[in-house]
Write a structure and sequence with these properties.
Largest sheet of chain A: 7 strands, mixed
Strand order of the largest sheet of chain A: 9-8-11-10-12-13-14
Largest interface: A-B, 75 and 75 residues
Oligomer: homodimer
Number of helices of chain A: 17
Number of strands of chain A: 19
Helix content of chain A: 40-55%
Structural class of chain A: alpha/beta
Low-confidence stretches of chain A: 1-22
Shape of chain A: elongated
Chain lengths: 472, 472
């Protein structure tokens, strides 16, 4: 941690980045939060964020600030930050940009430690906004206030009930999200909530005047609630530091990254969005290979591979045993596996013989291992028998029918081996929903199609290959 | 229709295929159905199928057949087909393979018109099964019984309440599914139900001793409830006829196809599954290009492109206008569009000027058209203004925030233009669910990620290019 603190104290890239607070603790676990720009009006951000903080069960004391209201959503309202009769750890700011520097002055006087500036209207809108942003930075730096944003969708720490963003996502889980697009973060967080997985943190970076992706990657590498870091970036704030930080952190926790602006059209759109300098896509590709970042191509892959990596240890090698109740899904999984360079090794003769003796005659003892109409227990049987095969490094269990007890059977199978088991469950209507949700409770990643499950296995394999290559 | 009937009377490929019933009407709208092998035991297929038929509100009279029960699920049970005191249009058969030829004899005597043989244990298991299958075919052909299967997951016609399959899918909709894997059909049907879209028919082909994909494609081309035909195939039954039928039908209705066994490993798995002769993948690719079939790569694409094609007319050309509330999603959509060969034309200056006059200053008047924090009505405004631009052939509306009223606004916009509007709605938690379901009610295809929405537009464009190329 010493290295970590030293690095953070460095002033980088001229005036834009600075560090004078040793940790980001006050951002994620503040003892008190002032919401500046709290609103009585439903639909306004200042209202929605207050409601989300309340409904998420925020462990901090909440102080809505609004000079025109006495009470909002049952909470006493304060006319200004300095009228709050308590110390304020963190400020969440949703007032118009022109008022933000003044608010920051008040926060500085009050001794606020961290500010999440959600308001837009800064660098992204031109010269006048640039001036406001400069003022904001100057005041914050002088006072030692750590800043997220401005022009961002806020932060969420469900483990502390701190939903200073939208929509409301409460479920605690293992995925930390860092994003240059608030919507991308919200989408991943919503999926994680819906599937019963949850998130550890979500931070929308906005204009990154202070806290950037490197600070957060380092912080999350030490965060006991985070098992995987999922990132959406359009450009990196500091290339050299990014490489250094990711090279070190990716050995400890998987980092999965989606980069916007891969193509010329995408880059053009990006320049309007975050004004990031894109650089050539091949450069980012090289950075990922060098640092062990698992690079993905789509939003769904970002979620899928983060989910698999959060629950499972990486497969040691490329051999996958596919166990299925559906021949068709087995074929689709095989096609995808071959296309992505995975291997589908044939089971050994003695294992086939053993399994053939206990399984019904219609089962196809090959890879894919087609159980046809079957029970969940037979998947367990096959995985346990095949786990000792050195050619097999991971399992894909495909449930193509409404098979009950799948989650428990796979969980028992997983407890018997350290080779990862990924599930595709589909075609099962209500039972599918129940089983997939149970699986996520039991730490088994489950996907809605055989192709997505295979892509998740390949994503995990990439990190494994990186870790092994470096140690050899 | 004359050509159609004549074709069906031809005996093709030796003994395997035959035609002597002019239409498949008795399969999809039978006046009475005997379920042979109905069971009292929950979990058994003979029980689940009977329950699904009852719960789907089957319009046919149902006759469970089981010599050992008097009543199942409240219905009087008959000891055999011939004891049913009524004519039997269709038989659904779930008894063990060895008993099937005997049952077919009884069906023949009873004058049954069509049989869905769900039982497995025929050609797919070896010599003995081959013999049973030969017997089955011989009896059925002599009696003029149309057969689906054997070794299949049954059929579904929600427009008639005929769910002779599993799981229970009741929602009526525009997608017809033909599949060589029951699970693939079930997955697509479940997704269609879950998203409020529904299916027109679903047929699992099984061993295809009689009715094959060509018969069904022709039938669905005339079916008023079917707007798009989604197919999963491992091999085609009759290549020449397949080309002829698809060339003709694809001009009338979109045909979307996923083929299993593209790779060597996939082909090996396929030979165990349906014993289809795969042929080289490039051959099927050429067939698709020749016939106008929209070929897809994954199960989700099969559903996504069928969904878009069911609701919308094809875009005339490659230009897409992306309208978004999220810069990040706009970039991801742009990246995908460029990768797939779509175009993202810059809006004309006069349109920008007009829209600039009425939209807030933070909107980015470009393509992607980034509305940032916005209302649903502004999407409508942009689409209506840009619809006359000849460079724009389709729209992608991305809702990256929980924006209410999205479905109605897009529906109004769609009524004002014949250029298709595809939606990606995400990051909106509960509001997202409500809006996406409303959209499907209103005939607007909505996707859970920007990339999937772009892939759907490209799928529709492929058919459009085929239709235009041929007419030029």
């Amino acid at each position: 941690m010493l290295v970590h603190i030293t690095e953070r104290c460095t002033v980088r890239r001229g005036a834009k980045l600075y560090m004078n607070s040793p940790t980001l603790e006050r951002l994620f676990q503040p003892s008190s939060v002032a919401l500046i720009g709290a609103s009585k009006e439903e639909g306004k951000l200042g209202h929605e964020i207050l409601r989300n903080l309340i409904e998420a069960g925020c462990q901090a004391t909440l102080y809505p600030v609004n000079p025109k209201a006495e009470q909002i959503l049952g909470l006493k309202t304060y006319p200004s930050v300095d009228s709050i009769p308590d110390k304020v750890d963190m400020a969440v700011i949703v007032v118009p940009a022109s008022a933000v520097p003044g608010i920051m002055e008040q926060c500085a006087k009050k001794g606020v430690g961290a500010a999440v500036v959600i308001s837009g209207g800064f660098r992204e809108v031109g010269t006048q906004g640039e001036r406001l942003e400069r003022d904001l930075v100057q005041i914050a730096r002088a006072a030692g206030i750590r800043v997220i944003g401005p022009n961002c969708q806020g932060i969420n720490n469900p483990h502390f009930g701190l939903c200073a963003t939208w929509p409301l996502v409460k479920r605690k889980g293992p995925i930390a999200i860092i994003t240059q697009s608030g919507s991308v973060g919200a989408a991943i967080a919503c999926w994680a909530e819906e599937e019963g997985i949850g998130i550890s943190k979500c931070v929308a970076l906005g204009n990154r005047v202070d806290v950037n992706e490197c600070d957060l990657i380092e912080y999350f590498s030490e965060d006991p609630n985070t098992r995987v870091i999922a990132i959406y970036l359009e450009g990196v704030a500091d290339g050299q530091r990014f490489i250094k930080v990711c090279s070190s952190v990716s050995r400890k926790k998987p980092i999965v990254a989606l980069k916007g602006g891969r193509t010329l059209i995408g880059m053009k759109a990006m320049e309007s969005h975050t004004k990031s300098l894109a650089g050539r896509d091949e450069v980012f590709d090289a950075v990922c290979r060098k640092t062990g970042i698992i690079r993905v191509d789509t939003l769904e892959q970002l979620f899928d591979i983060a989910k698999a990596s959060a629950f499972l240890s990486e497969p040691k090698d490329a051999g996958v045993l596919i166990v299925t109740s559906s021949g068709g899904f087995g074929i689709l999984a095989s096609d995808t596996a071959e296309r992505l360079g995975l291997k589908i090794p044939e089971p050994k003769e003695d294992a086939k013989k053993k399994l053939g003796a206990v399984l019904p005659s219609q089962c196809i003892l090959s890879n894919p291992f087609d159980l046809t109409m079957t029970t969940a227990e037979r998947y367990e049987l096959v995985v346990k028998e095949m786990a000792s095969d050195p050619e097999i490094s991971s399992f894909l269990a495909i449930f193509g029918d409404p098979i009950s007890g799948a989650a428990e059977a796979i969980s028992r199978a997983q407890r018997s081996t350290d080779k990862p088991i990924v599930v595709a469950y589909l075609g099962g209507s209500d039972i599918e929903k129940i089983e997939r949700s149970k699986m996520h409770e039991l730490g088994i990643p489950s996907f809605p199609s055989p192709e997505r499950a295979i892509v998740a296995i390949q994503g995990m394999l990439k990190r494994s290959q990186y870790l092994h290559a470096d140690h050899s």
